[in-house]
Design goal:
The complex is a heterodimer of chains A (375) and B (154).
Chain A lengths: L1 H23 L11 H20 L7 H10 L4 H28 L8 H24 L3 H15 L5 H9 L6 H25 L12 H17 L29 H26 L13 E2 L9 H5 L5 E5 L8 E5 L9 H5 L5 E2 L5 H13 L1
Antiparallel strand pairs in A: 1-4, 2-3
Helix pairs in contact in A: 2-4, 3-4, 4-5, 4-9, 5-6, 5-8, 6-7, 6-10
Chain B lengths: L1 H14 L10 E6 L9 E2 L2 E2 L5 E6 L7 H9 L4 E6 L10 H9 L16 E5 L5 H25 L1
The chains are: A mainly alpha (375), B alpha/beta (154).
Chain lengths: 375, 154
């Protein structure tokens, strides 16, 4: 059943991509940049965040006013704020798109497992960045978020109180809370870069950049939305008029969905949902039975050390080792079995019959061609 | 021995008659993840198209120039290397590399003796079965024309 759904999903994706290919060419097909798009928005966020950082003051007294100053007084401050707000949503949206694409095209497991796990971690980090970002504004919604999130953390057994205390950064909401939120927002952002490095591990040439045309289009879209629907603060946070929950109108469904969820099923229910969701997503690769692996193998006598296979391997599964077995060639290609995708790209790169897929050797392919053409 | 040579010569003389489009033999070396040929193949013969054999490999990036050469040597008039749509490869770069080899931009290079005018790359996805067959027919006409041209040049 699951296999049929996945295959159906892949067909839909392929049809859609074919249409876009015919209109825009494959070079400018936005769907082929599903991984590079979140990256593009991330750099937009870093850049706009840097500008906001220059004027933002993370204290209870000044935070709200500094954001108001940025929005209303600073030239183009409202635009920068809008970019920061909507690029963040766009980033999550494209991350979800990316995850759907790799899931339905079966590109998330086995030799890609590191990318899948690090992707889960990346999206969790993004949630933390998003939630803490909404605290920095320090309007009524921010206050509600702090309260509800502190309670949510405290509900966790054993470590909950410590986490909650750490998040509030003391016993009561204070300037230290703002510092913590500011740290969670910016510090975690930099952690994204480290996680991205992990995310790209074992990919020889990751597609990290969109084309100029697509980049301009995406930036333009964010700019238009930022202009059409300005990002504004609510009323300044007021401890005497604390809201019991975030009004539905003010929920950012990309980053703040946790709070309506808490309202709906309570703290324990939300934890349960979150943990079950995480476990399912983490175990998704295990739901599909892996085929027996038969990685590419190198024939030492034929390898001339030309490096072509190690260059072409898309998963950094082949490295060149120095030879000291009396061969006249200096290097020998070595396959790291766990990383091998059994795609045969190394075979296509080899002119010497030196690297083969045990399941389908190149000599066998040529025999099959000959036999097919005989009759 | 001498007779064999004579027979072979006679055969080549016979083959110089221009082939009609239907007689043209095409070999397709295809990525198994591109056009979905489940139920479309009788062994290697493509259903509904005359004289077209398909040999499937895990990825078009695995296609060696030597495989293309051997297809021509074994009697194919035209050869197609087929992979998924450029930009989409299950193994990231297989079709891109294959395309670059066909264009002579990436080693190992295809020998100069290979008739490049009768060699093409098809880049199609799983769902494009009908389009694939149409393009094979087009390719066969193209090859038939090229053969006529080549015969005229000789």
């Amino acid at each position: 059943m699951l296999t049929n759904i996945v295959r159906g999903g892949q067909k839909v994706i392929l049809r859609l991509e074919d249409i876009l290919n015919k209109i825009f060419s494959s070079e400018q097909n936005i769907l082929y940049y599903h991984g590079a798009m979140p990256n593009f928005f991330m750099w937009m966020l870093f850049l706009s965040g840097l500008l906001l950082f220059a004027y933002y003051t993370p204290t209870l007294e000044a935070a709200y006013q500094s954001v108001e100053y940025i929005t209303k007084k600073l030239p183009y401050g409202d635009v920068i704020r809008g970019i920061h707000r909507y690029a963040a949503d766009a980033m999550y949206l494209t991350v979800v798109l990316h995850a759907i694409r790799v899931y339905f095209t079966d590109r998330y497991r086995e030799y890609r497992i590191i990318a899948w796990y690090s992707g889960i971690a990346l999206s969790l980090f993004m949630l933390v960045i998003g939630i803490s970002g909404y605290i920095l504004v320090w309007d009524q919604r921010s206050l509600t978020i702090v309260n509800k999130f502190a309670e949510f953390l405290a509900a966790l057994p054993f470590i909950g109180e410590t986490l909650s205390h750490g998040f509030i950064n003391g016993d009561i909401i204070s300037n230290y809370t703002m510092s913590m939120s500011f740290f969670l927002h910016t510090g975690t952002s930099f952690a994204l870069l480290i996680l991205l490095w992990v995310h790209y591990m074992r990919i020889s040439r990751p597609v990290v950049n969109v084309t100029w045309a697509i980049g301009s289009l995406l930036a333009g879209l964010v700019l238009v939305i930022a202009g059409a629907v300005p990002a504004l603060s609510g009323e300044e946070a007021n401890f005497n008029a604390m809201l019991p929950s975030i009004p539905i109108m003010d929920v950012d469904w990309f980053y703040l969905w946790l709070f309506p969820l808490i309202d709906l099923v309570g703290n324990y229910g939300a934890w349960a949902a979150l943990i079950v969701g995480l476990v399912v997503v983490t175990l998704l690769p295990n739901f599909v039975k892996s085929e027996d692996s038969e990685p590419a193998s190198v024939n030492k006598d034929s390898c001339v050390g030309c490096r072509l296979c190690s260059i072409d391997c898309p998963y950094e599964a082949i490295y060149m080792a120095p030879r000291n077995d009396g061969s006249k060639y200096k290097e020998l290609a070595v396959v790291i079995n766990d990383r091998c995708a059994e795609c045969g790209l190394c075979v296509g790169a080899c002119n010497f019959d030196a690297i083969e897929l045990p399941t389908y050797r190149s000599t066998q392919v040529m025999d099959d061609i000959r036999i097919a053409l005989q009759d | 021995m001498a007779e064999d040579v004579k027979n072979a010569e006679e055969e080549t003389v016979e083959e110089q008659k221009p082939k009609s489009k239907d007689e043209v033999r095409v070999a397709v070396i295809a990525c198994e993840r591109s056009v979905n040929l489940e139920g479309e193949l009788d062994q290697t013969k493509l259903n509904g198209v005359d004289n077209c054999d398909v040999i499937q490999v895990p990825c078009s990036g695995m296609i060696q120039p030597r495989m293309i050469e051997s297809a021509f040597k074994s009697g194919a008039d035209g050869v197609i290397a087929m992979g998924c749509q450029i930009g989409d490869c299950h193994f990231r770069e297989g079709n891109k590399f294959c395309r670059e080899r066909l264009l002579g931009l990436r080693p190992p290079m295809i020998k100069k003796t290979v008739p490049k005018n009768r060699l093409q790359g098809f880049w199609m996805s799983e769902v494009q079965v009908d389009e694939f067959k149409d393009r094979i027919e087009e390719f066969k006409s193209h090859v038939a024309n090229e053969l006529v041209k080549e015969a005229a040049e000789d």
